[in-house]
Amino acid sequence: CLFKMSFGEILPIPPLLEEKDGVFNLKVIEGEYEFFDGTEESTLGYNGNILGQTIRVKKGDMVEIHVNNSLKEDTTVHWHGLRVIGIMDGGPHQVIKPGTTWKVRFPIEQEAATLWYHPHLLHKTGIQVYKGLAGLFIIDDERSDSLNLPKNYGVDDIPLIIQDKRFDSQMKLEYLTRNEDIINGMLGNVGIINGVVDPTFKPQLGVTRFRILNGANARTFNLAFSDNRSFYQIATDGGFLEKPIRRKSLLLAPGERAEILVDFKSLNEKVELRDGDYSLLTLIPKDEESKVEKVPKMLNQKVKLPDTSKMKKRYFVMQGSGRTVNINGKQMDMDRIDEYVKLNEPEIWVVTNASHHMGRDMMMGGGMSSMMGNIPHPFHIHNTQFRILNRNGRPPYKWERGYKDTVLVDPGETVELLVEFRHAGLFMYHCHILEHEDMGMMGQFNVS
Ligand code: C2O
Ligand code: CU
Ligand code: CU
């Protein structure tokens, strides 16, 4: 199903956004962009034609960001994974009108992690992200500074924004042109990394760190290397794991992030990063030594979960298919608050995907199970980093025991999440398949 035109272009690295007089300035612009030679598309970007510059901050910082909307349409900017008060969250209520500037100022109160930012306009999130609006938001802290990890951005610390887009036979970009798009969400036929089709990156010899964001609208990627090598996962959505976990593949749903370490030992190790059989990125080591030779043994404090037996439980059932997708029988309503939650009081969110289990089938191209609407839903919660307590009563996988803000819930599965909110205001929870979100698989909760 997937086709590709190979450019062998060098992987672009989204530049770090420089502060000016203590302010990060983002301008939302419409641009022209060539995914394929000679086919100009109208795209959206932050300070550029596509995607956004990387915002990098430190725990303890007071951060100020000004977002200027130069589009002819509304937008918002949501800081995905960040703990901030409701009016700074950038959800569907914080609309930035054309020609206006939205100013936020908030302290960074959470540990080192790879977060991201993207629009969150009611019913329009899917198209705006698809046209190019997404950027990384990296937090450093004392621990990340002191660990012996690759941290030279763009050299041995490499961001990978993985997406897919669909092009027609004339190589023009398509969005929501097929009936099944309403059910599956918008699946592409071409893989895109950092805005480019099939790029090549030349890592140093030694250990390279990849910060991977699944920034796709709907596709869950099952990432692995063409030589079946193992790698180490060191971080989840919201921070470092306790220790590196050795893995051979990495399932990453829309909205999720993972950081991995990959060791390159010799110059002739040409290897591809793939989703199933589909090659997304080619890696060819270069004759240069990386500063990091070994994978650290420990990364983060031991996770100590509190006694959860007396905590309040709240239930969320994701159900329906296509235009009927909903949570607890309700579709998103800007004027309805679905849940009232107490500030600083941990509780358990029990999230169920009520479609029937038909097995996982999410390689590029989709399959029968997704046609029937029995698809895994990545459930995302604003203003928190949670812990997964269990999946269908069983302990979570060891690579998902770090902080999470998005969790993939399979058909027939129930996951229990330990959540806590430290900032007040109105926030969203939703499926991160953006077409599901846009069709109403979203609810609002108030924290006070
Ligand atoms: Cu990444 Cu509510 O979004
Ligand atoms: Cu979010
Ligand atoms: Cu969904």
Secondary structure blueprint with pairings:
Elements: E1 24-36, E2 39-46, E3 55-58, E4 62-69, E5 78-80, E6 101-107, E7 113-118, H1 125-130, E8 135-140, H2 142-146, E9 157-167, E10 173-174, H3 179-184, E11 190-193, E12 196-197, E13 200-201, E14 206-214, E15 221-225, E16 231-236, E17 239-247, E18 249-252, E19 257-264, E20 271-275, E21 278-283, E22 313-319, E23 326-327, E24 339-341, E25 347-353, H4 368-371, E26 377-381, E27 387-391, E28 406-409, E29 414-419, E30 425-431, H5 434-439, E31 442-447
Parallel strand pairs: 1-4, 3-8, 9-14, 13-21, 22-25, 24-31
Antiparallel strand pairs: 1-2, 4-6, 5-7, 7-8, 9-10, 9-11, 11-12, 14-19, 15-18, 15-20, 16-17, 16-19, 20-21, 22-23, 25-29, 26-28, 26-30, 27-29, 30-31
Describe the structure.
This protein is mainly β and 448 residues long. It has three domains: 24-140, Cupredoxins -  blue copper proteins (Immunoglobulin-like, Sandwich); 157-283, Sandwich (Immunoglobulin-like), CATH 2.60.40; 313-447, Immunoglobulin-like (Sandwich), CATH 2.60.40. It is 6% helix and 40% strand. It has five helices and 31 strands. The strands form six sheets. Strands 9, 10, 11, 12, 14, 16, 17 and 19 form an eight-stranded mixed beta sheet that branches. Strands 13-21-20-15-18 form a five-stranded mixed beta sheet, with no helix packed on it. It is globular, with a radius of gyration of 20 Å. The relative contact order is 0.15. Mean pLDDT is 94; it is low at 358-363 and 365-370. Bound molecules: CU-O-CU linkage and copper (II) ion (CU) (2 copies). CU-O-CU linkage (C2O) binds next to strand 5 and strand 30.
